[in-house]
């Protein structure tokens, strides 16, 4: 949100100049509408994402039949074609599963009433100060008949939802701290208590929206036109963005700067890809030859865990959340604390003892039928999605890279795979990439365009979106695992 | 007997001689000797300064030929073999580090001493020869991960493997290039499989979809011969030795018990062991030829030996009784055979009702036959007497909303009267009088109603005499009525009371079906009495001398229970006995007061309608109690806000659900939907919003049309074209059952008005009705 406001300010600053000049290229002045005095909102002109140039993103109308069907479904289900959909359509196979799951969670049979579902979505998104999702769901919440009073803050919502606040907070930032006492507290609160089925529904919603907030920030999703910050009433010609800009293909000024900056380092980043591929090849080949000792394997996980602690963006300035968003959650100071820093008393979570496929799935499907199946499919698609390409190279087996990313995220949450050599992560993921991953997953509100641009410079935008999909699904699974394990412990 | 382990177990395996058991887990790897009364720790294989991940076992298996040989699968992908014969403290023999991911399962060849098979998360199965340092052959399942591998006990070269994607593959150990056979066994991962120890081709598989399936592999295509539905995903399955149809299962999540199933009885487990407090992770029959000992290890860190004879048998707890009564009053019940046998002597007594008696043929081959069998008896109504046509007619003709209250009441009263249900008609009339402005109601009517109320005195007395003759019967019959069938149950009553009961029955019959029961003399009078037209009513007034006379009578019986309902010809109702309880709560004085007050109130003091609310509510409860929930719900809907707040939510919901259920059993879908729509109870009105999706299949390729209902994604054809306008039909589609052409409902209706031939031109003479 902070970014968006900053960008807006930049525009207003440039207005002073461009207002006088009009558009330099087409010379268009104020349109006829201005004379009529009608205020027509228009987009701020970024396209669906602030990070990805608009021309890279698929234009509605030029999609193929499969994508069209997806758009149609999405529109039919939500009554809109939101920017998230427009960005995710880079990967239609995933998008289909994503939309199906989201639709089921929000609109189909389930233990929670409709307005509760949207409110929980608002709660979850607000934890990351994601005004984009909050705005969308405030609209939906009112649309399904929610009480507008609740929107003034969590303390105005029913006690039942207030009780969920604590779980929301822990789940979003330090899921490893969830215990069965949290679950018990929710299930045994007399008239405000949750049923197990409701709780599972709520947990799935919370994790879904936490990770969706990550995606929103990670891909720099622009606000919708009908939401705050998504439109301007200024006629197009007075901004520095004009119809002719689109046709010429050159965008705003900062876009140009980035491009030029990219050009300087183009040779570097070319080698970046080559080097990455070389490393993958090496790892593939010498895996059998030099076998690390057990102690070393164990310590590598610890190292990776510890290192992830230092990986953080340099600009650590305090973000003050926008007022309208902050009222949806309490305890703003509670944030991500590194797993390892406090990990002394928290034992490592072993996937071999509690994994999604065997345990999580069964539990979810038992308490909230069909959703387990849908989420399972979504995880599978996200994890296995590949086009066998890397930047300009074709026919590359990227499974190793994808697994490294997935396991790195789980590592940050203290989840360990016995059968994974965490040394691979260090080889494959460079620092700027790690910074990006960690920021998106743990403190998505701090993602900047610079971070997005500085990793994997030669890779396509669709590949960066692909990385984001991996990030959000891995994060969702990690949160779900902790929450479901606590529920299982409560039940036994 | 059981013993406590230090850590959760992941798997157990038994030595060939059944004297020792090995337990393996993430941080435990021990051998226990099984003694008479206890487990004795014999050996801890987890040695070394710093326990490595190689010792974190996912699975363990003991060689069935060589009692010194063990193999474990580690979570980091290592396969380790152990030789207990080694003199040193560390018994570790060989280490195979070929798998890249967790190894889920290891399995020794049943007869060959040196062959070991492993299946891993990376999708590969490897066969090791223990005399060599690396694998002999690698089998690629072309899938994500292998969950289980098992050598066939009978076929030397065959092994089965199960996969996370639901497939089961059969391999020949000599042919690593491709599998012999593959089929999809489950929806979702197949966690385990087990070959039948005797039956050559039988393979049992268990999966995340909560099923255990038994496959016959001898045929050309694997055939599912049995299927057991459990309550949680199946983690392990093991055939019980010496019992051809028995297998033991344990689950991976939620459910901690071990079940032994007879695959021919897939619904109730044959035996159940409930000792564990956390999920059971490993089960093993102690001896390959002894069906009575089962060993199990669990996440709750205990190792148990279960004796089969100690198992709890759910069958014993099963209740083989059931009772259900049909739409038209037929009653069926199933009871334990022993119970039925003793009482069946009274059967001939049934007289006017047909009694059908079923008994399941005993199958001597079935082991459970004696345990839980029951006999089914069916009592049928006499044809005609149980007609429910009044219910259907009423439901269809009642008007519930959309018009002013007065009209609705009048309409419904008319409907009720036409169907001969005068009591109900009267109630509607009274409701109208109470709730609509008094000016509309002509004077004579009121007199009539008062008169009517009193006229009932005489028949009332009659029914009372009857009742008094059968003391102690009242409570019985009341009970019966709540079950919904009086007749069949009265069979159970003392035979000395038979005569009276029968008489009583005849009357109570009317209670369920008021239309059927009318005392002849009252009938004629009442019918006219309730006509609202003043012109008709006036000429009849002289006849109402009798009522005046009856008034005192009414007062005489005022302290007896009947007649709590103001203005209802309670006396007609044989339900006096049934509503005794009701009546007690209502002061009789009150009821007679209400009679009078109606006539006065509206004219003199203008009592607000609220005044009657309590009475109306009681009246509704009375109807519901009587079984006429239709009346209760209809009045509730028609009166709406006027009475709603005075009846608690739960009762209302209960009435609604019963009425909707009845309507649906009579296939009155439209009426039931209307009722749902008009109901104000949230729980009821949301009935309409659940499961509103209609799934359709393409008429060409027969596949489900997932995205849109009218275009098939696969064959790119529009599924339903209108034969008249040649456009796609997106809403209601009507078609001729003769030639299967059809189209928009409106178009077809219009077309068939002008022509009787099919609009598609096929020459068929279509009918539209």
From TrEMBL, chain A:
This is Sestrin 1. Belongs to the sestrin family. Pfam families: PA26. It catalyses: a hydroperoxide + L-cysteinyl-[protein] = S-hydroxy-L-cysteinyl-[protein] + an alcohol. Transmembrane segments: none annotated. One of its GO terms (biological process) is cellular response to glucose starvation. It comes from Equus caballus (Horse). Keywords: Cytoplasm, Oxidoreductase. The gene is SESN1. It is found in: Cytoplasm. GO terms for molecular function: L-leucine binding; oxidoreductase activity, acting on peroxide as acceptor. Signal peptide: none annotated. GO terms for cellular component: cytoplasm; fibrillar center; GATOR2 complex; nucleoplasm.
From TrEMBL, chain B:
Signal peptide: none annotated. GO terms for biological process: autophagy; cellular response to amino acid starvation; cytoplasmic translation; negative regulation of TORC1 signaling; negative regulation of translational initiation; positive regulation of macroautophagy; positive regulation of TORC1 signaling; positive regulation of translational initiation. Residues 496-515, 560-583 are annotated as: Disordered. Pfam families: WD40. GO terms for molecular function: ubiquitin protein ligase activity; zinc ion binding. It is found in: Lysosome membrane. Its main location: membrane. It catalyses: S-ubiquitinyl-[E2 ubiquitin-conjugating enzyme]-L-cysteine + [acceptor protein]-L-lysine = [E2 ubiquitin-conjugating enzyme]-L-cysteine + N(6)-ubiquitinyl-[acceptor protein]-L-lysine. The keyword Ion transport does not apply. Pathway: Protein modification; protein ubiquitination. WD repeats lie at residues 96-138, 183-225. Keywords: Autophagy, Lysosome, Membrane, Metal-binding, Repeat, Transferase, Ubl conjugation pathway, WD repeat, Zinc, Zinc-finger. It is an enzyme of class 2 (transferase). GO terms for cellular component: cytosol; GATOR2 complex; lysosomal membrane; vacuolar membrane. It comes from the Eukaryota. InterPro entries: WD40/YVTN_repeat-like_dom_sf (IPR015943), WD40_repeat_CS (IPR019775), WD40_repeat_dom_sf (IPR036322), WD40_rpt (IPR001680), WDR24 (IPR037590). Its EC number is 2.3.2.27. Catalytic component of the GATOR2 complex, a multiprotein complex that acts as an activator of the amino acid-sensing branch of the mTORC1 signaling pathway. The GATOR2 complex indirectly activates mTORC1 through the inhibition of the GATOR1 subcomplex. GATOR2 probably acts as an E3 ubiquitin-protein ligase toward GATOR1. In the presence of abundant amino acids, the GATOR2 complex mediates ubiquitination of the NPRL2 core component of the GATOR1 complex, leading to GATOR1 inactivation. In the absence of amino acids, GATOR2 is inhibited, activating the GATOR1 complex. Component of the GATOR2 subcomplex, composed of MIOS, SEC13, SEH1L, WDR24 and WDR59. The GATOR2 complex interacts with CASTOR1 and CASTOR2; the interaction is negatively regulated by arginine. The GATOR2 complex interacts with SESN1, SESN2 and SESN3; the interaction is negatively regulated by amino acids. SESN1, SESN2 and SESN3 convey leucine availability via direct interaction with SEH1L and WDR24. This is GATOR2 complex protein WDR24. It comes from Equus caballus. The gene is WDR24.
